[in-house]
């Protein structure tokens, strides 16, 4: 993994075997970033786990094939004592049929490129809303 960070953007290049969410969290911790928007991503993954929240926990579906990362979105927030990475993505199979959803795990095949927009005037936290820990944005003072 390689990355470069400025006040406006973080660019990350992931290598084969890197897990997308863990790498985003690592970079954010290294750069002292607690709030960011995942602007996009492109590349390939070989292992992918989607999660569908059913109101109590996640129903999961594992995909064990090489697929193309066509779009990535989400955010980085602060939860409890650490970084929480919330990711959704669209992936294409070789026949161009798409898979999409909430990503619990995605392992890079060959490489992937991820871009984060850091937030300096807004802090993204998480708070329990009666069902789950939802996004709780607040203006920084």
Helical percent range?
Answer: under 10%
Rounded mean pLDDT is: 96
Number of beta strands: 9
Measured distance between first and last alpha carbons: 34 Å
Low-confidence stretches: none
Q: Strand pairing plus helix content: what structural class?
A: mainly beta
- Computed over alpha carbons, the radius of gyration is 15 Å
Number of helices: 1
Strand content: over 45%
Reported for the largest beta sheet, the result is:
7 strands, antiparallel
Shape: globular
Your description of this structure?
The protein has 141 residues and is mainly beta. Helix content is 8%, strand content 66%. It is built from one helix and nine strands, in the order ββαβββββββ. It has one helix at 20-30, and strands at 2-5, 10-15, 36-53, 58-63, 67-79, 82-92, 98-118, 122-128, 133-139. Strands 1, 2, 3, 4, 5, 6 and 7 form a seven-stranded antiparallel sheet that branches. The protein has a two-stranded antiparallel ribbon with strand order 8-9. A hairpin with a 4-residue loop joins strand 3 and strand 4 (58-63). The longest helix has 11 residues, at 20-30. The chain starts with a strand and ends with a strand. The relative contact order is 0.28. The mean pLDDT is 96.
